[in-house]
Amino acid sequence: MESAATPTGRVPAVGRGNKMRTAVLAATLAELATTGYAGLTVEGVAQRAGVHKTTVYRNWKDAPSLVVDALTSHFATDIPIPDTGSVAGDLRALAQALVASVSTQAGRALITTVLAEAARLPRLADVKRALFDDRFRRAEPVVTRAVERGELPAETEPAELLKTLAAPIYFRLVCTGEPVDEGTADRAARVALAAAHARALPAV
Questions:
Q1: Pick from 113, 91, 118: which is nearest to 102 by CA?
Q2: What are 193-202's pLDDT values in tens digits?
Q3: What pLDDT does 10 receive?
Q4: Which of 10-14, 74-78, 171-175, 199-203 has the lowest mean pLDDT?
Q5: What's the rounded Cα separation, in Å, for the pair 10 and 50?
Q6: Ordered domains of the chain (ranges, CATH)
Q7: pTM of the predicted model, to two decimals?
Q8: Which one, of 69, 68, 67, 43, lies nearest residue 56 by Cα?
Q9: Are 75 and 129 in contact (CB under 8 A)?
């Protein structure tokens, strides 16, 4: 397939620069959710984005490059860091945001791509590491504020706290296939908070 065409045979213009980039990356995410990583092609992304495949190839050298760029951009912004005024509220909000992110068809597909394909695609493994490193870094203010308010022990390590929070959610999603919902988020937040109060989450 050479290009994406309208009924008149013309390719709908999406512009250049950021507008084109946004359209292509969004199309890549949509293709991942629909076809999975194995079925994704540059041609399919171009058709969905409304651009010629040559436009895609001028900006990304191949499908893996597209996937890495799209996932990096998506995961950098998908879960905001809350400031509810209490560590219990912050952890609950974080867990609920994570559940919301992974419980949709698209969210599950993207997480599955990162976790399942990283072993055979080094660049995707880099995305996975960067994803979790970014989550840990952005969660640090949640812990810092809680320590300053006297809600958590001073030795609580932000990354360890977030791992404890996320582990029950990812275990259900990846290992058992059980549903994740608001109850899952609430339990994860309570477990993480209890572990921190027990001084079980220092730096390792």
A1: 113
A2: 999 999 999 9
A3: 37
A4: 10-14
A5: 10
A6: 17-67 (1.10.10.60), 76-197 (1.10.357.10)
A7: 0.74
A8: 43
A9: no
How many CA within 13 A on the CB side of residue 84? 11
User: Alpha-carbon distance 172 to 183, whole Å?
Assistant: 12
Q: pLDDT band for position 108 (50/70/90)?
A: confident
pLDDT at 54 over 80: yes
Q: So what's the pLDDT on residue 11?
A: 41
Does residue 110 contact residue 155 with C-beta atoms inside 8 Å?
A: no
Exposure string of 137-150, with b = 16+ CB inside 10 Å and e = fewer, is ebbeebbebbbeee
The larger pLDDT score, comparing residue 17 to residue 32, is at 32
